[in-house]
Design goal:
The protein has one domain: P-loop containing nucleotide triphosphate hydrolases (Rossmann fold). The protein is built from 10 helices and 10 strands.
């Protein structure tokens, strides 16, 4: 479904992503794990069109999207939940969700996706007319995911969904990620909480200073001594 080949990204003279290749198959949850500054967010931005790579290719649903505009990529069915949530603070919950559906022309589809989001996130239903900036961190994360789901994506890129959230809220967010996957949305997950990410993933890649240094079944990496020592506190 997603195939990244020999991707190179620079920030000025800094070589941030160094020729990485990875793939995500339809129906999977795949995690990119690694320390701060490893290049995880840069990778997602390159995939979703927010950042232009220097070389390499990104293919989604057998289409080359390497230098495609971000809005066109969304229309192909690739949604992105950015790091830090980035909700529209001065808009209501409903207005944020409307923004997520800007690429969808069919009103029946918008209505159906809205109802699905409200079912997934009952707390958002209670706060439909509330300004997004007044929501808690966990509620804003729910809104950011809900907004991305409004475009009915085939695949969702999730960037640090647990960041800054209380453990009980993190559990709830990860339950929702699993539910979305079971309902047919493929997931590429970037997450510093490696243990949580690996626990729900099919496969994973370990990123270090712009290089993929390990890859494999998530369960195997969860039990790997090197991964435990570097990322799982063991």
């Amino acid at each position: 479904m997603l195939k990244v080949t020999d991707l190179n990204v620079y920030y000025g003279m800094i070589h941030a992503i160094k020729g990485i290749s990875f793939n995500v198959e339809e129906g999977e949850i795949v995690s990119l794990i690694g320390a701060n500054g490893a290049g995880k967010t840069t990778t997602l931005h390159s995939v979703s069109g927010l950042l232009r790579s220097a070389s390499g290719t990104v293919e989604f649903m057998d289409k080359n999207i390497t230098h495609m505009a971000a809005d066109k990529i969304v229309k192909l069915g690739l949604g992105h939940v950015p790091e830090g949530r980035r909700v529209f603070q001065q808009l209501t919950v409903d207005e944020n969700l409307d923004m997520g559906a800007y690429a969808v022309k069919d009103k029946a589809v918008i209505k159906r996706e809205y109802e699905r989001v409200m079912e997934l996130f009952p707390r958002l239903k209670e706060r439909r007319k509330q300004l997004a900036g007044t929501l808690s961190g966990g509620e804003q994360q729910m809104l950011a995911i809900g907004r991305a789901l409004m475009s009915k994506p085939k695949m969702l890129l999730l960037d640090e969904p647990s960041m800054g959230l209380a453990p009980i809220v993190v559990m709830s967010i990860f339950d929702i990620i699993e539910t979305c996957n079971k309902e047919g949305t493929t997931i590429l997950l970037v997450e510093q909480n490696a243990k949580m990410a690996l626990s729900i993933s099919d496969r994973a890649y370990v990123l270090e200073t712009g290089n993929i240094v390990m890859e494999g079944r998530a369960n195997d990496l969860l039990n790997d001594d090197k991964v435990k020592k570097a990322y799982l506190g063991g």
